[in-house]
Every structure is written in C-alpha cells, then in structure tokens.
Amino acid sequence: MIKSLMSLRGGPRLFTGIALMQLLVAIAGFGFEPFRGRTDYAALPLSTHVHASFGIAWCVIAIAQPWLIGARKPQLHRKLGWAAAALAAAMVVTGVMTTVNAVTSGRGYPAAMVFVTNIGGLIPFAAMVIAGIQVRRRSDWHRRLLACATIMVVAPGWARIVPMGTLGLAGLLVIEAGMLAPVVWGMIHDRRTNGRIHPAWYWGVAALVSPLFMVPVAFVPAFTAWADGFAPAAG
C-alpha cells in the first residue's frame, strides 16, 4: 500500500498528500491529549468517541479516494464516495451532539464560543461536502472541494496543537494558517501544472475562513445568555 501511494503522480498524489496531512494533524492533536493531562477520554460520552471515530474514518477515506483514481478503480471510488456522504451526515449530527454534551457537562467554556467555533466549523464542512457531491461529474471541482472539506474536519485537532490558552483569540489565526497551508500547496500545484489556480480553491478558502466571521456572534449578549442556559449551574 505504501509503495502504491508513493507511485502516485499528479492530482492523485496531491490530494492523497493533503488528506494524509490532515490525518497526521488529527493524530497529533488528539492522540497526545491524555499525555498532556488535559483530557480523560474514558470520561467522555459515547457520542464523542463515535464522532471522533467518524472523523478519523473520513480522513482515511479521503486518502483512499484519490488513490483509487490513481489506481484506475473508479467504480470502487464511487461506491466509497456514497458511503463517505452518509458518513459526513453522521459527522454533522454527532458533532452537534458532542458540542452540546461538552457545554452541558461543563467541559466546554465559555459556552457561546464553543457553540460558535464548533457549529461554525460544521456548517462550512457540510456546505463543501454538498457542493462536492453536486459537482461529482466535474472531477476538477469535486476533488478540490472535498479536499477543503477534509481540511475543515481536522480544525479541532489544530485547536489542540495550538496553545490557545496562551494565544487566546489570536490562536484562531494560527489555526487558520495551518488549515490554509495545504490549500496554498494545491494552488501552487495548479499554477505549476495548469498555469492557473483553479477557482474551487478560492471557494475552499472562503469556507475555511468563514468561522472567523462567526466569532463576533459569541459576544452578542443575547446569544451569550442563550448559550449559558445550556451550561451547568455554578456551585
């Protein structure tokens, strides 16, 4: 398998590489949490474990899909693609459940910021997946939009790598920089191979940075009061 991945060229190599990068970010972000003493995975609800498993599964599928194209197995690619579509829907549902559980248990604080950043990431992810499915017959758009969806999936992993406690809101900019790096990689690849940057990347950039524009909502008093209503009472 490793040998076949290394033999990929062109687009399949680019998109496999982007997906592999996201899997490594997820592993680095979540895999070392217990060693940092910040997360007791055994105490987390089942829905959180299911959501995390779905996220890893998505990254693995994202690696497999361009490999299948490079290996000239389009039928298996299509079948796995529809399975991934169902997985995406499940990820959104369990992502909302995980967010609500984090806030109601007191693990997510401040509640308004948790709701905005988590749900704010699920919305553009769902939008990229839906758009990618709609243009599935146009492979140039399809694979770039879904690559951006995969980048969005690992935003929580970046949030655990970046020292948010030290950087505060500035940490969000660092996270965005890490997420945009593979997009820049794709743009450079397009420029070198096709002489122009594919417009799908610009839509991907818009989706990836959109959560930043949702952050001010967390400071709206009415929304803050609504979010705090889910948090456990003090004392």
Structure description:
The chain has twelve helices and no strands. Helix 2 (10-31) runs antiparallel to helix 10. The longest helix has 31 residues, at 74-104. The mean pLDDT is 89. The protein has helices spanning 2-6, 10-31, 33-36, 46-70, 74-104, 111-134, 139-153, 155-161, 164-167, 170-194, 199-214, 221-228. Helix content is 79%, strand content 0%. The protein starts with a helix and ends in a 7-residue tail after the last helix. The chain has 235 residues and is mainly α. It is globular.
Quick summary of this structure?
With 235 residues, this protein is an all-alpha fold. It has 12 helices and no strands.
Mean pLDDT: 89
Classify the secondary structure makeup into a structural class.
Answer: mainly alpha
Q: Over all CA atoms, what is the radius of gyration?
A: 18 Å
Estimate the global geometry from the Cα principal axes.
Answer: globular
The oligomeric state is single chain
User: What order do the SSEs take from the amino end to the carboxyl end, as H and E?
Assistant: HHHHHHHHHHHH
Q: Helicity, in percent?
A: over 70%
Main sheet specs? none
If helices are DSSP runs of H or I spanning 4 or more residues, what is the number of helices? Answer: 12
Low-confidence stretches: none
Distance between the terminal alpha carbons, to the nearest Å?
Answer: 55 Å
Name the beta content range.
Answer: under 5%
Q: What's the total number of strands?
A: 0
